Amino acid sequence: QAFFCLLLCVPWGSSCPPSCQCTERAGAKAVLCSSRHLEEIPKDIPRDAVFLKLDANSITRIPSNAFRHLSHLEELDLSRNAIEKIDRAAFKGVAAGLRTLDLSSNRIRSIPKEALLALNAKLRLANNPWHCECALQEVLWEARLDPDSVQDITCHTAPREEYVGKPLLQVLDAGVNFCSVRQRTTDVAMFVTMFAWFAMVIIYVICYVRHNREDTCKHVDYLKSLPSTQGHAE
Predict the structure, then answer these.
(1) Is 130 part of any domain?
(2) Is 27 contained in some domain?
(3) Is 69 left (phi over 0), alpha (psi -120 to 50) or beta?
(4) Residues 135-164: pLDDT tens digits?
(5) Are residues 133 and 196 in the same domain?
(6) CA distance 203 to 197
(7) Does 77 lie in the same domain as 54?
(8) Burial of 22 (0-12, 13-18, 19+ CB in 10 A)
(9) How does it sit in the membrane (predicted)?
(10) pLDDT tens digit string along 158-202?
(11) Bridge partner residues of 181 (DSSP)
């Protein structure tokens, strides 16, 4: 009876993943999972966790709703992993309360802007092999980036070779606008498509007129070949 009473008295949110260490920090629960060779985010993180450290692991992806049950989460450290993909709804459920999010030193080339722009957290995105594009530019302008790390957001790849290896902020300060480049590309594609359709219509009309002209000529020739009424009368 004492055993079952103990089970009922212990809140489910107070359990700790076997690969992590749970402790108190300034009266708030901290879950420490650093350097534990984790390949994915643990499923049994306590619901009352305020600080969560998952740095220095081998996590490759942040799936949708990965932290949705952690409504008290304020600080999340995912630095020094092997993260390549972040889903659009990766931080759904923690966007309002999260204060800091560290994604530095991963393998992130691109990220859906929806995943970050909903956050109020201070972001660290440095030391990733970024592909400089419109979505990353919008994150830089609209998200709350850590000012100490923004210079380390570097273009690993870019539409033009001259931008490669340069800090994204420096490229944008020089007047480059990746979003306008994408818009021009879209406009050109639309123009080419419209021109192709117009050309097809013109070709169809020409073929139609030419075909009708040939039929008319054949009909006239046929009529000329018929014996005239006068010839029959004689």
Answers:
(1) yes
(2) yes
(3) alpha
(4) 999 988 889 999 999 999 999 999 999 999
(5) no
(6) 10
(7) yes
(8) middle
(9) Single-pass membrane protein
(10) 999 999 999 999 999 999 999 985 444 444 445 456 656 666 777
(11) none
* Chain position carrying tokens 């014996």: 227
Q: How far apart are the first and last CA of the chain?
A: 131
Give this prediction's pTM: 0.72
Segment 22-60, tens digit of pLDDT = 999 889 999 999 999 999 999 899 999 999 999 999 999
Q: Which of 4-8, 106-110, 146-150, 156-160 has the lowest mean pLDDT?
A: 4-8
- Clarify whether residues 95 and 206 are in a common domain: no
pLDDT at 223: 61
- HEC assignment per residue over the chain: CHHHHHHHHCCHHHCCCCCCEEEEECCEEEEECCCCCCCCCCCCCCCCEEEEECCCCCCCEECCCCCCCCCCCCEEECCCCCCCEECCCCCCCCCCCCCEEECCCCCCCCCCHHHHHCCCCEEECCCCCEECCHHHHHHHHHCCECCCCHHHCEEEECCCHHHCCCEHHHHHHCCCCHHHHHHHHHHHHHHHHHHHHHHHHHHHHHHHHHHHHHHHHHHHHHHHHCCCHHHHHC
Q: What average pLDDT does range 7-26 have in this prediction?
A: 72
